[in-house]
Fold this sequence. Notes:
The chain has 9 helices and 8 strands. The protein is of the alpha/beta class. The protein has one domain (2-19, 26-215): TIM Barrel, CATH 3.20.20. An 8-stranded parallel beta sheet has the order 7-6-5-4-3-2-1-8. It is globular. It starts with a helix and ends in a 12-residue tail after the last helix. The structure holds pyridoxal-5'-phosphate. Pyridoxal-5'-phosphate (PLP) binds at residues 32, 34, 55, 79-80, 163, 193-195, 209-213. Residues 32, 34, 55, 79-80, 163, 193-195, 209-213 line the site of pyridoxal-5'-phosphate.
Amino acid sequence: MIKDLFSQVKDQIEKARKTVVGSADMIKLVAVSKQQPDDKITEALATGHRLFGENRVQEATMRWQARKNEFTDLTLHLIGPLQSNKVSDAVALFDVIETIDRPKIAVALAKEMAKQDKYLPCFIQVNTGDEPQKSGISPQETLSFVNHCQSELGLNIIGLMCIPPQSEEPAMHFALLKKLAKQAGLPHLSMGMSADFEQAIAFGADYVRVGSALFGERLPRINNDDA
Ligand SMILES: *Cc1c(COP(=O)(O)O)cnc(C)c1O
């Protein structure tokens, strides 16, 4: 039952939060609903949960556009890489953009937010492992990039986000993200997924992005061209 999984994960989050000295008053659970069947989304909403994350704009639009009218208190986070041609749809649909990962997309978002007069809070995605295939700003460039986004583009940057390399212990990456956020003067940290959200909370995460621990295994994607 989705309901039981949600209360289990929420209990684990609260337990982890309590054991951390100086932890955030509240940890936000971003329920990652990508590639999940509709009945599970309905069940999740029935528990009262309203904060969800999606990594593809088109898929998210199909899943959430109609529900946004029904549930006016929904909060949707974009947690996947954004293509330039989807910026307009993304700004229209989402409430928070977690994945500003390159200068070009920062410029495009700033322009589009001005156009729609909708200034969304954003996170900068940091490639903490400096992995060539992974999106994100390299750690060495993060401080100047945050500054550029804030003072030149006028973006509302509220925190940093990372996805640690799969083959490594996440602790070093969580610690690095925390250090960078502190240096940049940013209050929020989005880190930790199903396998490691408790550990992320120990390192100061106040947003965790949890999918399979809440919904079970994801369905395979039907097509791959919507990023
Ligand atoms: C899919 C995804 C998640 C959730 O992953 P789980 O391991 O299922 O919890 C979290 N963050 C991002 C960026 C994702 O793409």
